[in-house]
Amino acid sequence: MDQIPVNSAQLERQLSQAVETAMAVVATYGLRVLGAIAILILGWIAAGIAQKEILRGFGRFKGVDQTIVTFTASIAKYAVLTFTIIAVLSSVGVQTTSFVAVVGAMGLAIGLALQGTLNHVASGVLLIVFRPFRVGDVVETAGVAGTVKAMTLFTTELASADNVKIVVPNGAILGGVIKNVTGHGTRRIDIDVPVAHSSDISKVLDIARGLVVKDSRIWLTPRLPLL
Amino acid sequence: MSKLTDIAVTVTVQIWVKLEDLLMVKGDLILGLKLGFDREGIAFPTPVFATKS
After folding, report:
1. Nearest CB to A189: which of B7, B26, B32?
2. Cβ(A144)–Cβ(A164) under 8 Å?
3. Which residue of A has its CA nearest to B44?
4. Chain A contacts of B26, Cβ < 8 Å?
5. Residues facing residue B7 across a β-bridge
6. Tens-place pLDDT, residues A61-97
7. Do A207 and B15 touch (CB under 8 A)?
8. Radius of gyration of chain B from its Cα atoms, rounded to whole angstroms
9. What is the SS3 string spanning chain A?
10. Burial class of residue A15 (count of CB atoms within 10 Å of its CB; 0-12, 13-18, 19+)
């Protein structure tokens, strides 16, 4: 423990030394802290601007799904925030090389842990981009059938014929066969009519032909109306 | 009228329709066939429901 100064001259000298040391510390680190705060504020603002601009930019295009727009904007915001935090740490003297390595390792660990979930996200993005079906289509996929009610990044919601809500993971949909029942504008109807052997087959055919020719809703081929 | 137990021939009516007409056309066609068959005395394989006596 320092000795208590016995006279005013010693006290004054020690006080001036303490003030000089404090000034040196403030001059060295104070500016860095101020710079870090400035970087943090600017980064925060930039993240918000990036998110808004992506939302506004994609909003001009009618065909782009709102889900993917929101997702992209969110990713952009957090990417800018991550770079901001790294820049802040770097400005106050923290070695960011090791920090970046830690972030990379964390990313790998999170990626491995969320492997299945990320698969669904990737499948959801592909479903939204390539659109093998749209909301309102009737599809058979992943062992279930129904009308598509909603498509999100993780799951697709169907309503079965008896109005049961079915939620299918996107990975299961993209990993299997997708049968879009309403994918084309026309459908073929096959009606099998068993007739007794003793019946007059020519009369049966005449009845069928008469019905088909009379009905203007019936088409000869997928593209050509019968009449 | 011939009996359904004699069934030996299957006539397939194959047509194309617009998606929005699918169910109505199918229903109308089956009904038309049934009425036509009835008119000509040809047995039609509609389900026969039991009735209370």
Report:
1. B26
2. no
3. A195
4. 189, 191
5. A196
6. 777 777 677 778 888 888 899 889 988 888 887 777 8
7. no
8. 14
9. CCCCCCCHHHHHHHHHHHHHHHHHHHHHHHHHHHHHHHHHHHHHHHHHHHHHHHHHHHHCCCCCCHHHHHHHHHHHHHHHHHHHHHHHHHHCCCCHHHHHHHHHHHHHHHHHHCHHHHHHHHHHHHHHHHCCCCCCCEEEECCEEEEEEEECCCEEEEECCCCCEEEEEHHHHHCCCEEECCCCCEEEEEEEEEEECCCCHHHHHHHHHHHHHHCCCEECCCCCECC
10. exposed
- For A218, name the nearest residue in chain B, comparing CA atoms only: B17
Both structure tokens of A186: 């026309």
Against a cut of 0.80, is the pTM above it?
A: no
> Which are the contacts of A185, defined by CB distance < 8 A and separation ≥ 6?
B18, B19
Q: pLDDT tens string for chain A (227 positions)?
A: 555 556 788 888 888 999 988 888 888 788 888 888 999 999 999 999 998 998 888 878 777 777 677 778 888 888 899 889 988 888 887 777 877 787 788 888 888 888 888 888 889 888 888 889 988 899 999 999 999 998 877 889 999 999 999 999 999 999 999 999 998 888 898 888 888 888 888 898 899 999 998 888 888 777 655 54
Distance between CA atoms of residues B48 and B42, nearest Å:
15
How many Å lie between the alpha carbon of B24 and the closest alpha carbon of chain A? 10
